[in-house]
């Protein structure tokens, strides 16, 4: 997955915006103000911090040692840093991004979630 493909995929979800609250290099993708992905699209290797169920996070780290690690500068129980261009199947990367988005949406208040269902 290229940086452009990662950016486009993140922006393809409903109600997502790209923000730069930390510095001009760090893209933060948010749904209704809540972060679900954080990356430096110009970095090599390309990595992205993604929210993850804590049990899944541990399993993924064990299954993909070195490519999925505890979230850098994040709550390591709930976030993983995923190396996007380091040998993981693109399908898995897409699933992890989508899971992160879904976890954040699930944590939104009901009224906010309902806004996402409207066309």
What's the structural blueprint in terms of helices and strands?
Blueprint: H1 3-11, E1 16-19, E2 26-31, E3 34-40, E4 47-51, H2 54-63, E5 68-70, E6 79-83, H3 90-106, H4 110-117
Antiparallel strand pairs: 1-2, 2-3, 3-4, 4-6, 5-6
Task: Give a brief description.
With 119 residues, this protein is of the alpha+beta class. 37% of the residues lie in helices and 25% in strands.
Structure description:
The protein has 119 residues and is of the alpha+beta class. It has four helices and six strands; from the N terminus they run H-E-E-E-E-H-E-E-H-H. Strands 1-2-3-4-6-5 form a six-stranded antiparallel beta sheet, covered by helices on one side. The N and C termini lie far apart (29 Å). The mean pLDDT is 93.
| Main beta sheet | 6 strands, antiparallel
Question: In oligomeric terms, what are we looking at?
Answer: single chain
What proportion strand?
25-35%
Radius of gyration: 14 Å
- Average predicted local confidence, pLDDT: 93
User: Helical amount among residues, as a percent range?
Assistant: 25-40%
Described by the principal axes of the CA atoms, the overall outline is globular
End-to-end Cα distance, whole Å, is: 29 Å
Number of helices: 4
Low-pLDDT stretches are none
* Beta-strand segment tally: 6
Strand numbers in spatial order across the main sheet? 1-2-3-4-6-5
* Structural class label: alpha+beta
Helix-strand sequence: HEEEEHEEHH
